[in-house]
Structures are given as C-alpha cells and as structure tokens.
# Entry
Amino acid sequence: MPIKNKEPYQQEYYAPVPTGLTRYMRTSLIWQIVRFLVINWKILKLMTRSHISR
# Structure
C-alpha cells in the first residue's frame, strides 16, 4: 500500500490556539491565587494525614 502524502499547511500541523477563557485563566491574578490556595490546602491535608498516621 503506498503512503498517501498529506497536503502541507493543514490545520493539524499548527498548535491549538487557546480560547478566551483559557487565556483569562492563565493571566488572571485572582484565579491564580485561588488555585494556589486550593493546591496548598490539598498538600497540607496530605501532609497532616501522613504525619498523624505514624
């Protein structure tokens, strides 16, 4: 079976473009603070469980 060549510069050759909401979430200081607090809370819970069980 011969391999069919693809046309150059088709959509699948380019990186996906982020949506407006994605760009907002990446640049919003308020959203970054919220995510920082949530992740730190999860880490704190994990650490307290591991230290209490010893």
About this structure: The two ends are 63 Å apart (CA to CA). The chain has a mean pLDDT of 85. Residues 29-52 form the longest helix (24 residues).
